[in-house]
Amino acid sequence: MHDQAAAFAYVEAMLWGETPVCPHCGNFGKIYVLAGARSKPSKKNPEGIERHGLKKCAGCSKQFTVRIDTIFEESHIPLHLWLQAIHLMVSSKKGISSHQLHRVLGITYKSAWFLTHRIRECMRDGAPAGFGGDGGIVEVTRLSSAKSRVL
Ligand SMILES: [Zn+2]
């Protein structure tokens, strides 16, 4: 899981299977794939940043990605780093600190802190038994999506 495109394909397959669902209106009939979409150019990224996994709903015309309604929402941290962080936290028996994550993933300490806290929060809410192994990430995303809908 070393790049964003692969990470999106993985999470999409896990949450949606073959059929993307619009988080805004629930439509799963006609969804456009906005391949190669880019963010607005900035000084740091004059050509913009590629927006992975971007879709547009034919029903309500809103855009979305699979990150909406999951713990990956509202975060600028690339999706493949989320998956790596979850993997490290789930597979490490002794747990992993924000500082270790910062070093291993090469992200800022602030980002690493945010990741560990958000992931731990989800792990605490769910039954710890449901964690670990292959199902780890599935549990994380479902729990969080149920939680954010309640809110
Ligand atoms: Zn829609």
Structural key phrases:
151 residues; mainly alpha; 5 helices; 5% strand; disordered C terminus; binds zinc ion
How are the secondary structure elements laid out?
Elements: H1 4-16, E1 31-33, E2 55-57, E3 63-64, H2 79-91, H3 98-105, H4 109-125, H5 136-150
Antiparallel strand pairs: 1-2, 2-3
Helix pairs in contact: 1-2, 3-4
The structure holds zinc ion.
Unreliable runs, pLDDT <50, ≥5 residues? 127-151
Helix content range of the residues, please?
40-55%
Number of helical segments with 4 or more residues? 5
What is Rg?
Answer: 16 Å
What does this structure look like?
- A hairpin with a 5-residue loop joins β2 (55-57) and β3 (63-64).
- It is built from 5 helices and 3 strands.
- Helices cover 44% and strands 5% of the residues.
- The protein has a 3-stranded antiparallel sheet, with no helix packed on it.
- The structure holds zinc ion.
- Zinc ion binds at residues 22, 24-25, 27, 57, 59-60, 62.
- Residues 22, 24-25, 27, 57, 59-60, 62 line the site of zinc ion (ZN).
